[in-house]
From TrEMBL:
Annotated signal peptide: none
GO molecular function, one term: NADH dehydrogenase activity
Gene3D superfamilies according to UniProt: 3.50.50.100
Coiled-coil positions: none
Domain of life the protein comes from: Bacteria
Phylogenetic placement of the source organism: Bacteria, Bacillati, Actinomycetota, Actinomycetes, Kitasatosporales
Record protein name field: NADH dehydrogenase
Pfam family, one: Pyr_redox_2
Length: 446
């Protein structure tokens, strides 16, 4: 029996990890094969991206190598392009297929787990594709850190006031977890870095948060959301609620309230949408493009197909209001993966399935070093206690003892020594120096 897991994120990795433990006898006897197809050879623990961007955690400790963790699975680095569940076939492509020019390959399966995750939800904002920066991958997080420090270098060395002003203006669009935590950590890092510049002060920088709704961080509750707005504004961060980004053409952010900000940094964190792969399947989808799933995490009306995480609309059986779905967040994804692994193992052994049942306990968010907000089990925390809870919770959730130990060691060392504020922007163009020496051109500045 071949179990195909599509995606190597939270759900994909944790489900495969749980399956290889539950089905150890079957794997040893060669009765079951677990195949994981993922675009990247690692799982990114996204809650640590803001701290990686701020330099509190090394990039390599934010990711978990799939081949090391899933040592009893067959890991294929590639991208599934279509699924024909009626024929139990998935089409996928790899780097090798592109080199060979053979086109997508087909893989048959007996059970399939669809967990491709989500992608950034963008809007047709003029200039966004040219100048916008995302914040969903470790590459984007480190690239943004390098970019912010590079802008401070530009501001420090330019003689043009307009260039300086644009370099020191940072616009973040989206008041959810990603936007608020990225803004809070990077502002904290840049404020610290400014002390090492002779002509750039923390007060010279403009940090702007743009949110289309009337509140930020809805997951932590209205009261904590209002506290977060007050805390950010106390740090001279311009929080603009009920405001949209209308354009960022020619490096000018134009907002719906009429404000215009010349800027070289527009970070887009305004939500996510289901992976386009789901539309290339013959499985039932909701109006929002997510898999229709049951409480047992099977795809509704499609035997031998399973789903969880961002890609799946899973009914919340603990909610008082019928028809409520589980929120697409990491708290549910990790717990769903465990139930999903148990249920697939039960199906293989022809045993009853269990429902996914988890009452949402609350949320925590970091606003920078020693600053945070939390609403957990009805209790509201802010400042250092919330920040400490944020770190403890995510340290407990990051997979493998190896990863936990490395992250804890880095946090300990960062508490004893000063921050590193070096920009390694050349990492984005590693061949630039050699190309220039060989007679080529240096890449244009981003």
């Amino acid at each position: 029996m071949r179990i195909l897991v599509v995606g190597g994120g939270y759900v994909g990795m944790y489900t495969a990890l749980h399956l290889q433990r539950k089905l150890k006898p079957e794997l040893r006897r060669g009765e079951v094969e677990i195949v994981v197809i993922s675009p990247d050879p690692y799982m990114t623990y996204q809650p640590f991206l803001p701290e990686a961007a701020a330099g509190s955690i090394s990039p390599r400790h934010v990711v978990v190598p799939l081949r090391r963790v899933l040592d009893r699975c067959r890991v294929i680095v590639g991208e599934v392009t279509a699924v024909d569940h009626a024929k139990r076939t998935a089409s996928f492509k790899t780097l090798a297929t592109q080199e060979e020019g053979t086109g997508p390959l087909d893989l048959t399966y007996d059970e399939i787990v669809l967990a491709p995750g989500s992608i950034s939800r963008t809007l047709p904002v003029p200039g966004l594709a040219d100048y916008g920066i995302g914040f969903k991958t470790v590459e984007e997080a480190i690239g943004l850190r390098n970019h912010v420090i590079e802008q401070m270098d530009i501001a420090s060395s330019t003689r043009d006031p307009a260039v300086r002003d644009a370099a020191l203006t940072f616009v973040f669009v989206g008041g959810g977890y990603a936007g608020v935590e990225a803004l809070g950590e990077l502002e904290d890092m840049a404020r610290y870095a400014a002390r090492y510049y002779h002509n750039v002060k923390a007060e010279d920088m403009k940090w702007i948060l743009v949110e289309a709704s009337g509140r930020i961080l809805p997951e932590v509750g209205e009261e904590m959301g209002k506290y977060t707005v007050r805390e950010l504004r106390r740090r001279n961060i311009d929080v603009r609620l009920e405001t949209r980004l209308d354009s960022c053409e020619d490096r000018v952010a134009v907002l719906s309230d009429g404000a215009r900000f010349p800027t070289r940094t527009v970070v887009w964190t305004a939500g996510v949408k289901p992976n386009p792969l789901l539309a290339a399947t013959d499985l039932p989808l909701t109006e929002r493009g997510r898999l229709k799933c049951t409480a047992e995490l099977t795809v509704d009306g499609a035997p031998h197909a399973w789903g969880a995480g961002d890609a799946a609309a899973v009914p919340d059986v603990t909610a008082e209001q019928p028809g409520t779905e589980c929120a697409p967040n990491a708290q549910h994804a990790v717990r769903q993966a465990k139930v999903l692994g148990d249920n697939i193992a039960a199906a293989v052994r022809e045993r009853p399935l269990q429902e996914y049942r988890h009452k949402y306990v609350g949320s925590v968010a970091s606003l920078g070093l020693h600053k945070g907000v939390a609403h957990v089990y009805g209790r509201k925390l802010k400042g250092y206690p919330a920040w400490f809870m944020h770190r403890v919770y995510h340290l407990s959730r990051v997979p493998t003892v190896n990863r936990k130990s490395r992250v804890l060691a880095e946090w300990t060392l960062s508490g004893l020594f000063k921050r590193e504020i070096v920009s390694l922007g050349s990492l984005e163009h590693p061949r630039a120096e050699f190309e220039l020496a060989a007679g080529g051109r240096r890449p244009k500045e981003s």
